[in-house]
Amino acid sequence: MTCQSPHCQDESRERLASQGNATTSTSPNPSSSDDQDSSRDSPSASPMKSKRLNFRGGPSGLGRRTSSTTSILNLNHLLPTREDHGADTYGVGEVRDGFFDAVFLQAARLPSNDGLAALKTTLPAAYDLHHPLTIRHFFPNQWRELKTVVRQVLTTHAGIKLLKAFLAYLIAYILCLVPAVHHWLGHQYYIMAVSVILNHPARTVGAQVDGVVLTALGTALGIAWGALALLLSTSTRAASAGYGGILALFLVVFISGLAWVRAFFIRFYQAVLTAGISLIYTTLSETRGTMISWPKLRGYAVSFLLGQAIALAVNIVICPDAGARPLALTLHRSLQLMQKALENPHARDTRLRRQLSKNFVDLSEAYRDMVIDSTVSRFLPEDVLELRNLMQAVLRALLSMDTETNLLNTAKNSKTDDSEEGQEPGHNGKNVLADNVTEALAPPTRDLVVCMRDAILGCDAALMDISGYRKSTGPSIDVSSDTEALTARLRQAVYDLDTIESSLLQCGRFPASAVYDSDIVQLFVFARHVGATATAVQRLLNHVTSMQQSAPPRPRLRLPSYPFAKAIYRTNAQVRHDRGGVVAGSYEVTFGAMARLLDTITSRAHKPAAGRGRGPEEEAHHLTPAASNTTTTTGTRTDGRLKTATRYRIWRALYQLQGVESKYALKACLVTALLAVPSYLDRSKGWWDRYDGWWAVAMSWVVMHPRVGGNLQDLLNRSCLAVLGAAWAAAAHAAGRGNPYVMAVFAAVYMLPMLYRYTLSAHPRSGLVGSLSFTVVSLSLVSAPTVAAVSCRGLVFLVGTAAPILVNWLLWPFVARHELRAALSSMLFFMSVTYRSTVATYVYAAAQAAAPTADDTTRSELLEGRLREGFVRIRQLLVLTRHEMRLRGPFDPLPWSALTEACERFFEHLVAARQAAATLRRHEDRTPAEGQAAMLPYRRDAVATVLANLYVLAGALRARRRVPRYLPSAAAARKALLVRSDAVEAEMLAREAAAAADGEALRKLDTHRKWSDIYRFSYKQSLTGCIVQLEEMEKYTKLIVGEQGFDDQFSM
């Protein structure tokens, strides 16, 4: 510990004692403590309170004050009264690198039951509906969903998709009932209908062609591997004696590899699925130790290819979807949401902001779906990529702009008398200068918002004209698509707003002290956000104009252009749906991408600040570059070279084998090997072949998912549908005594809702189980119409469906509550890394450090986009918890939802701070080097306290341990920094006033200083908002995992 300068310590102590005690002794106005927390905060800083935000809600009459005063007032309600908050340090401070001074204050009380009830506004929209597992609302919910399904099928494009899938299946099913086709294809003729189900035509043409190729390759690979196993098992007399062991070995090896590929490279899902089914059929159906039934392989292959041909023909002939429609719909929905976000005026809509974040993710998925498969469209892939980036930039700007302000009121603001224009704020209890600024900024700001809405509507019309879907999607034909006229109008509106802003800051009636009034500064900050949004809209408008000019007159074929290295981890929308577990898969991909991106930040070498009392030798032997704490990217060696050593590669490979993919491969291997045992025993071979026992192994391979599927609800749903399919097949055969016409009618009645469940609903795998059960059992009865055949085949499908669910339930199950805990823990850690990077790069960068480049800004925006997607995935996991039965009682989602909301608001404040600090760097931060050196310990303490608290909270969630009752006070550290910043600003103002000689130089300096102060006020207020949300995160984390006191181990 080293003493600091006595002069600085005495000055700091005096200012802390005078200003800190003065502000904390009086309870602040609720509007100043909550509403003034930040212009970005919703109803209040805490989700527990519900008040309407107002830029005019701050305390009036503060007069001349620094830009830190409002932030200090915001912190007062977080600090206990009549405490010095560690202000008196007696001239002693911590200057060692890696240490900081922490202040511990009295812990805040946790929210009561009434406070928790107020948190319901933070829940996702799915919680507005009745709980899906309650018996009371089960039948009303089913009836309501049935009406919704009928309406959707009859009035939307979903009806066409269902019609295509149903027609293709019905054609294949009827062909299987024809005796000539039956005899020509052989015993496994029903594989033709199974093939149509696996690659149904309810998808785009490009996805259908891709599916045909992948399923054909997968079937050929499975048959080839199975044929090799059959040849080896009958090659010699010894091999024939132990043919079962050879076939089991080939099955285990191949299924293990396929399962690993299925979990890791989801692009090959269709190929892997069909390869597994064909291998199981080849090695487990009609096998003997002395001979090979080669005709069965020909019949299986021909039947499967005929089914693919039927599905492809129906997909191309009946209302073909060339792939441009999903992209057009996504673009149209995005532009509609942008217009809704600019409505004038509206209260801060949390649900709307979540929709904007979700749409941010949907745009990326729509672009990937276009370039990952072949499409026929007028859109150029490179134009769509740039369009996606520009639309995401507009969404990013809209999320940074809060539209609830007096500037957007339609009614004219009240006018003041000319005699009141020169009065100081606070005269007669009214902030006259703020009224004058509002009156001046309101008309151009309102006009600019209207122009932005019109420009976005024009972009929507132009893009829908290019896509060719304007008649079916909108907007109406009355909307003009003349983007050049809209561009000129928007440019003029931006110019008008800039002119008014400059005139206000340069006019003599606007005193210099006004830039320290929170009411006035927030008006200018909001106007700047509107201007930034207008700039993003203008770039979007220019790009749409160029797309109009360069679009080809007719649609053209666009081959897949997505990089293969990325494409193997992605697939199209319909395959994602049919595969099931969309939320779990998306969550894993999103957080993995965030970890890899943030690893590039955490793996950087630590470079301590120079000149802190260390000599050259000590400086040289100080911290060395540290390796990353994650295993997602290549780290850094201590000598600066990449980790390319053989031992590191071996470690990476072994670590990868511990992942979810290897666990899934082990489970799939275990289930298929155990279910296949009867096929190798001579005493059970008869009934195994008679009742197609190989379908139990095939169904286990189809049903088992790499991530989800192991809970009671899945077990009941899929088992019931497996039994229902067999029972309906028996009823169809008994009704007409095997009459093919009656069986076709029964198939049409049953398969229409079942195909909807498989192709369009949120439960595709249960629909797949029901479809396969009915198809196989009903068509098998054509050749073996006995009661035993129905019951035994139904039992086969029941066992094959239930076995993998039970194994997934017992071995490494997917529990949404546990994944939610891990996701929030990871997100808190990600917030700490992002906070550290933002503060170091943009806010508190050294004076000699280079300004952030365009690449730095691009990387920051990319990281922010990933984090927004992460919050979307967390809320989707929160919705999944409603579908899980819990023996210990119902899961309480309120603290989890409130923690997610507080973490997201923390992130929004951090984004606002980065944007304001980046703009301040362009306006040149005027803080001298000695001033920055004086504030360095305070900045260190403020930042380190936030990081320490985030690390503790993230670790408590990850390890399920209670949070310490007393954590370092981030509010006290932030307040100390703001007080010290006041002193430095006061010295700086006096120095600049003395240095300016003539009036013209003073006027230019004053105008430049006003803009700098406005941006400084913005990022200071945003960082203060981060502190407020950090306090909220601490409360909700304690509600989730509990609170640990000093004497808890002695309590009874």
From TrEMBL:
<feature type="transmembrane region" description="Helical">
    <location>
        <begin position="794"/>
        <end position="815"/>
    </location>
</feature>
<dbReference type="Pfam" id="PF13515">
    <property type="entry name" value="FUSC_2"/>
</dbReference>
<feature type="transmembrane region" description="Helical">
    <location>
        <begin position="297"/>
        <end position="318"/>
    </location>
</feature>
<feature type="transmembrane region" description="Helical">
    <location>
        <begin position="267"/>
        <end position="285"/>
    </location>
</feature>
<protein>
    <submittedName>
        <fullName>Brefeldin A-sensitivity 4</fullName>
    </submittedName>
</protein>
<keyword id="KW-0472">Membrane</keyword>
<dbReference type="InterPro" id="IPR052430">
    <property type="entry name" value="IVT-Associated"/>
</dbReference>
<keyword id="KW-0812">Transmembrane</keyword>
<dbReference type="InterPro" id="IPR049453">
    <property type="entry name" value="Memb_transporter_dom"/>
</dbReference>
<feature type="transmembrane region" description="Helical">
    <location>
        <begin position="741"/>
        <end position="760"/>
    </location>
</feature>
<feature type="region of interest" description="Disordered">
    <location>
        <begin position="409"/>
        <end position="434"/>
    </location>
</feature>
<feature type="domain" description="Integral membrane bound transporter">
    <location>
        <begin position="688"/>
        <end position="782"/>
    </location>
</feature>
<feature type="region of interest" description="Disordered">
    <location>
        <begin position="606"/>
        <end position="638"/>
    </location>
</feature>
<dbReference type="GO" id="GO:0016020">
    <property type="term" value="C:membrane"/>
</dbReference>
<feature type="transmembrane region" description="Helical">
    <location>
        <begin position="827"/>
        <end position="847"/>
    </location>
</feature>
<feature type="transmembrane region" description="Helical">
    <location>
        <begin position="205"/>
        <end position="231"/>
    </location>
</feature>
<feature type="region of interest" description="Disordered">
    <location>
        <begin position="1"/>
        <end position="69"/>
    </location>
</feature>
<keyword id="KW-1133">Transmembrane helix</keyword>
<dbReference type="InterPro" id="IPR023244">
    <property type="entry name" value="Brefeldin_A-sensitivity_4"/>
</dbReference>
<feature type="transmembrane region" description="Helical">
    <location>
        <begin position="767"/>
        <end position="788"/>
    </location>
</feature>
<feature type="transmembrane region" description="Helical">
    <location>
        <begin position="166"/>
        <end position="185"/>
    </location>
</feature>
<feature type="transmembrane region" description="Helical">
    <location>
        <begin position="243"/>
        <end position="261"/>
    </location>
</feature>
